[in-house]
Write a structure and sequence with these properties.
- The chain is elongated, with a radius of gyration of 17 Å.
- The longest helix is centred in the middle third of the chain and has 33 residues, at about 35-65.
- α1 (about 5-30) packs antiparallel against α2 (about 35-65) and α2 (about 35-65) runs antiparallel to α3.
- About 85% of the residues lie in helices and about 0% in strands.
- The protein has three helices and no strands.
- It has a single domain (about 5-85), classed as Up-down Bundle (Methane Monooxygenase Hydroxylase, Chain G, domain 1).
- The chain is mainly α.
- The chain starts with a helix and ends with a helix.
Amino acid sequence: MDIDSETMASVIRRLRRAQGQIGGVIKMIEEGRDCAEVVTQLAAASRALDRAGFKIIATGLQQCAADGDGTADADRAQLERLFLSLA
């Protein structure tokens, strides 16, 4: 599955955002911040990672639907397994 450069740039932005959020969570823990604040930020980082993964899978599904060749069924099965690993 090839991912176009625009989609990949979007995914990379999401991952960098998650990377910053995770760094912030580590700093919050080191500073002894409130548990609820830490968990809120951790949940935000988790959502950012999930969205990056879903973006990659959605692009793959779109490409499989457009291809229509003999490998589409195998690709769809692989994408379904990937999707379920994120869900």
